[in-house]
From TrEMBL:
Name listed for the protein in its UniProt record: Metalloprotease
UniProt topology in membrane: Single-pass membrane protein
Highest taxon in the source lineage: Bacteria
Subcellular location: Membrane
Amino acid sequence: MDWKNLPSSGGGVEDGRGGGLPGGGIAVGGIGGLIIALIAMFFGINPGSVLGGGNTPTTQTQAPTQSGAPDQTYDFVDRILGSTNQVWSGIFQQAGRTYTPPKLHLYSGYVNTACGQASSAVGPFYCPLDQKVYLDTSFFNEMNQRLGGGGDFAYSYVIAHEVGHHVQNELGISDQVERAQRQARSEAEANSYSVRLELQADCFAGVWGNHVSSLANLTQQDVTEAVNTAAAIGDDTLQRAGQGYVVPDSFTHGTSAQRVHWFMTGFKSGNPNNCDTFGQNYGQL
Ligand SMILES: [Zn+2]
């Protein structure tokens, strides 16, 4: 992947790194229900398990940057965001609409957001209240080590997935889904909406990949990286690894097979109208 061919976001990335308390845990127990309800996490961990207990381990790993060295991480994230701005602006424009790009906030350790305080333990997320994607790039190390192997295009998929949640917000899909969830008659039904929302964000990430594939010279190897990531973060795979068994009704992000399927649906077609994971034409463009 030649990500340096992609355009800068022109100031869309806020650098809040270095703000983490060195070696200190943070009081994540103070996070209200709001953030749990609102953050659309990429990493299918159960917030209850992250926030439960009095002594939550937090990741304090610094982002992989060195003072004095060119900041590759910032440049990379900036260009991936810039390319999502370009792709979605174009798609919205063709549909006679205007796309307002999100900001991307880099942090290390913990961060205050309009959705509440969060630690890097929750993984990358999007906060619709301030329309920002929050990313601690130590998550990339985590992907490398135990979530499918990482790689440039896999990291890009993470960012494009979170931007996909912003697109859902722009299209009013998030609101429609929240309404439907409030009327759900069971937790399983409410969770099924979360799964569809997450799978659509995967599909939107694929749509972005389709549109940058020639500019970024994507190869089969790049696509394999993203697919490996999607497979590694399916609810079934994570649950099997975490607790040794799978509880389908508690899924919030979809199975590995579903995540791969919807990413590839977006990637092959490049058309967000093919990302109707709800089967109800929510937010057609
Ligand atoms: Zn998500």
